[in-house]
Task: inverse folding
């Protein structure tokens, strides 16, 4: 299995500030995914991060708001920029290991924006 | 419209009892279906994964079934324990793509 370390686990932030979430995987993976989970709702894919190329964003998500870095095959960051209370959610990173057979998630970042 | 619908939205059961959660999907062409358990404040953890040819798969007290013809799956929890209190999420993937379709989850509360 893949072990994903995600931090911070939670944070309370002021409106207008930015927060960077980090995910470290214990093995090399080609694709890393960032999800948002709003209260009581399904997980929504924000973007797919590939090493060495720009992240691919889903409809409704833009790079200026959610810049992503993927400097190597084991690490990625997601920044939530210029936060507003509507950004309060759980943010999760995940990797698809074992040729797509297994999907592993980080422990999540509970973000509250005041 | 979400391609994965789960029911019920939530349920409460007494410790030791069984329960069954439902997942209906419209994702096509179907590749596989996964059930995840998500404890409060944690990331989802995989319980089972089933492909088109698999009808049932067990993981301890969790048993998942799949009917690919009717596009339905269920997750049965046997002899529930307090630690089973969590959200259970059904996730379906299509052939040829990495994008997954997530259900909204069923919140299970087990009471002593």
Result:
């Amino acid at each position: 299995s893949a072990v994903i370390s995600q931090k911070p686990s939670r944070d309370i932030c002021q409106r207008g500030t930015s927060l960077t979430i980090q995910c470290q995987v214990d093995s090399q993976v080609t694709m890393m995914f960032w999800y948002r989970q709003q209260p009581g709702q399904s997980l929504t894919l924000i973007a797919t991060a590939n090493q060495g190329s720009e992240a691919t964003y889903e409809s409704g998500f833009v790079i200026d708001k959610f810049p992503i870095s993927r400097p190597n095959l084991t690490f990625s960051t997601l920044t939530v920029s210029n936060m507003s209370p509507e950004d309060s959610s759980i943010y999760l990173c995940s990797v698809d290991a074992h040729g797509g057979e297994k999907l592993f998630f980080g422990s999540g970042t509970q973000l509250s924006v005041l | 419209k979400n391609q994965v619908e789960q029911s019920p939205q939530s349920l409460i059961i007494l410790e030791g009892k069984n329960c069954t959660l439902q997942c209906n999907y419209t994702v096509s062409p179907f590749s596989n279906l996964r059930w995840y358990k998500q404890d409060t404040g944690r990331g989802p953890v995989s319980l089972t994964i089933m492909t088109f040819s698999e009808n049932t798969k067990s993981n301890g007290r969790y048993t998942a079934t799949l009917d690919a013809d009717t596009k339905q799956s269920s997750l049965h929890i046997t002899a529930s324990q307090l630690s089973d209190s969590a959200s259970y999420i059904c996730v379906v993937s299509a052939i040829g793509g990495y994008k997954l379709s997530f259900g909204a989850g069923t919140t299970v509360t087990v009471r002593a």
About this structure: Chain B touches chain A through 20 residues (CB under 8 Å). The mean pLDDT of chain B is 93. The CA atoms of residues 3 and 82 of chain B lie 31 Å apart.
